[in-house]
Amino acid sequence: MADVARVAGVSPMTVSRAFKRDGTVNAETRARVLAAADQLGYVFDRTASNLKSQRTGFVAATIPSLNNANFAETVGAMSEVFEAHDLQILLAATGYDTALEERSIEQLLRRRPEALIVTGGVHTDRARRMMESAAIPVIETWDLPRDPIGHVVGFSNAAATREMVAHFVALGHRRIGFIGGDADRDTRGADRRRGFVAAMADHGLSADRLIDAGTPPITMARGAQAMAELLDSHPDTEAVICVSDLSAFGALTECQRRGIAVPDAVSLGGFGAYDISAISVPTITTVDAHARRIGEEAARLVVALMAGENAQGRIEVPPRLLVRGTSRPGV
Amino acid sequence: MADVARVAGVSPMTVSRAFKRDGTVNAETRARVLAAADQLGYVFDRTASNLKSQRTGFVAATIPSLNNANFAETVGAMSEVFEAHDLQILLAATGYDTALEERSIEQLLRRRPEALIVTGGVHTDRARRMMESAAIPVIETWDLPRDPIGHVVGFSNAAATREMVAHFVALGHRRIGFIGGDADRDTRGADRRRGFVAAMADHGLSADRLIDAGTPPITMARGAQAMAELLDSHPDTEAVICVSDLSAFGALTECQRRGIAVPDAVSLGGFGAYDISAISVPTITTVDAHARRIGEEAARLVVALMAGENAQGRIEVPPRLLVRGTSRPGV
DNA sequence: CAGGCGTATGATAACGATAACATCGCCCCA
DNA sequence: TGGGGCGATGTTATCGTTATCATACGCCTG
User: Fold this and answer.
1) A311: left (phi over 0), alpha (psi -120 to 50) or beta
2) Which residue is the nearest neighbor of D7, CA to C1'?
3) Helices B69-83, B291-306: inter-axial angle, 10-degree rounding
4) How many A×B Cβ pairs under 8 Å?
5) For the whole model, what pTM was predicted?
6) A270, A330 contact by CB (below 8 A)
7) Strand pairing of B115-119 and B58-63?
8) Environment class of residue B235 by beta-carbon count within 10 Å: exposed (0-12), middle (13-18) or buried (19+)?
9) Cα B329 to Cα B331: distance, rounded to the nearest angstrom
10) How far is B11 from A30, CA to CA, in rounded Å?
11) Are A199 and A260 in contact (CB under 8 A)?
12) Which CA-bearing residue is nearest the C1' of D14?
């Protein structure tokens, strides 16, 4: 920067100002500075800027997995909003593991992010303490934690699943199954399962058709396997709710392989409004959790909080049940 | 840090050392320091560390889109490798747009990453210049650029497509179509199309069944639309190669809707070995580009280069043709 | 025409770590 | 027994920006 200043015939301070947007620099001077910088191949050093100004322009974010279209969409939406505000996402994948989440959060906080967006409301004690004492906005997404750390942008996974159970019951189904993953790891999946069990009880139905599809991520193939298991153990199953559209599609293919008509013999439901559920034959009944909107709202909230605005603590993004081809027409 | 030093009864330098892994500090002293830090709620500040040590632990990466399982897998694999080396990915999505890539690269370089991994080998002149003068390892992936900037971890998209054409020709197909996206934006898609056209010429066949599915990303729905277009204009088409498995699956659903038997009436091929192609009914013939391996190799290369090793400039990750259910049995 | 104000720029001193070098014991071997 | 070597710690001076205050120079106003 000193070199640039020399070439441009100004002080380093003026160069610094020329590189800021709000810098109170004469337009002509700024042009001269930028020309000098270009000529010298100077690249502004944000690591130094960060230190002195105590502003990094980082927003830390954790997600369970990148390779999940829902979370990828959320991150993509956040990224787009942040781009306009010169904020850069620091992303860490936790692999559905709170211990790894804790380590990730620790590493991320060392980078002095100006906000932290985490997925889900369940954390280790230490992770929680770190977030509470970080003195930056913390936003929990994709969930409605019972005891939020800071702000929340999410919805009730349990309630969404209850709605789907009600939908299938209204269609006349009674023997309804659920395919989900290891409840200890995927807490949102666990909430959906909990919602299923509670809803079945509400309707006076048995919730014993629960298939554990193992450790997340629950792939299409795992969904197919789980469906095979369910059909073997309970051949009279009338409807199946799956923890995601991916497993629902897997279940659908298993039915096709066995010659079981969907939805005539069995109704299916998924979660997440993945592309596949809109195009498969038949299309899959699902819950649109508005992944992009969650990302947008969370990012806008961060921007607002950083601008000193007094934003609302809890934004609920209500999911929407999309009744599609795998729902048997009502009786 | 000074506070921690005071509480622990040591100098700040010793605190600094206690927080490094290789620090030559007495185990007992380190324990005392860490206890003091914990007690005070001190969080190590990497922004300061970065400045003085001139090492940021950042690796910048650009990908066309996060919401693409292939690129997400590549990034996920890189991330896992980097995690073990205390490196953090700085990710930017370019939206298949070289102008945006240029801006992203500029912003990323200001953060002083220690390496830069970009997807594809086509860049704006300025982006190219910035990468060349950045004095850090630059790795181009998912492609074999004609004129590489630095290192390369990729494969020939054209050659992979030629192989698939050869496969379909060997099955006795002659009237083969191609569904792809806007060639100006998705350069890898354009390479596949180029490979298709060249291969058809090699076999003395006409390559006029080219459907443009528009601006990327090419979704399943766009694949279905494109297939409809192709079937309308060329009802006698025997085989279709799609730019990705997603569009191939869309094409498959369109066939199902029209009652066209796959593969008996039409063979289909995709690209990318997405989950969907392994589980759809029928399963989809595809090219596995080894997305994870590309990420791993690129990340390992970065780690090796940062360790001062003299790594090979060009790593070719050969793709593999996976012949599956959408390929008509040979004549 | 003095006083005041706004614009444009400069000088100085940090921001919070650490590289580099210095120091101090202590052990070991010739 | 003395010097070399090594492990553990401290001192000093930055890393490349920018917050803050100071300065210089119009220009307006009463």
Assistant:
1) beta
2) B24
3) 30
4) 118
5) 0.94
6) no
7) parallel
8) exposed
9) 7
10) 44
11) no
12) B52
**For the residues of A141-158, what is the DSSP string, one character each?**
ESS--SS-SSEEEE--HH
Most B CBs within 10 A among A111, A116, A133, A244, hence the mutation to make, goes to: A111
- The b/e string for B136-168 (b: 16+ C-beta within 10 A; e otherwise) is bbbbbbbbbbeebbbbbbbbbbbbbbbbbbebb
CA–CA distance, B74 with B13 (Å, rounded to integer): 39
In this complex, do B253 and A75 lie within 8 Å of one another by their Cβ atoms?
Answer: no
Distance CA B23 to C1' D7 in A: 12
Structure tokens at A91: 């992303």
Q: Which amino acid is at A286?
A: T
Burial zone of B91 (CB within 10 Å; 0-12 exposed, 13-18 middle, 19+ buried): buried
Taking the C-alpha atoms of residue B245 and residue A101, their distance in angstroms, rounded to an integer, is: 32
- In tens digits, chain B (331 residues) has pLDDT values of 899 999 999 999 999 999 987 768 888 999 999 999 999 999 999 999 999 999 999 999 999 999 999 999 999 999 999 999 999 999 999 999 999 999 999 999 999 999 999 998 899 999 999 999 999 999 999 999 999 999 999 999 999 999 999 999 999 999 999 999 988 888 999 999 999 999 999 999 999 999 999 999 999 999 999 999 999 999 999 999 999 999 999 999 999 999 999 999 999 999 999 999 999 999 999 999 999 999 999 999 999 999 988 888 899 999 999 999 999 997 6
The residue type at A164: M
SS3 call for A62: strand
Give yes or no for a contact between A209 and A230, defined as CB atoms under 8 angstroms apart: yes
Find out whether B124 and B99 touch, Cβ atoms under 8 Å.
yes
- The token pair that represents A128 in the structure block: 């929680």
Q: Strand B138-141 and strand B151-154: pairing?
A: parallel
Look at the block and give the residue holding tokens 């659920």: A178
CB contact under 8 A, B66 and A72: yes
Could you say which DSSP state residue A285 is in?
A: B
**Tokens 């906000």 sit at which residue?**
A115
Q: CA-CA distance, A47 to B102, in Å (whole number)? A: 20
Token pair recorded at residue A106: 């620790």
Q: Is A280 helix (H, G, I), strand (E, B) or coil?
A: coil
Q: Please state, in angstroms and rounded to a whole number, the distance separating the CA atoms of residues B305 and B311.
A: 6
The single residue listed with the structure tokens 């030629």 is B162
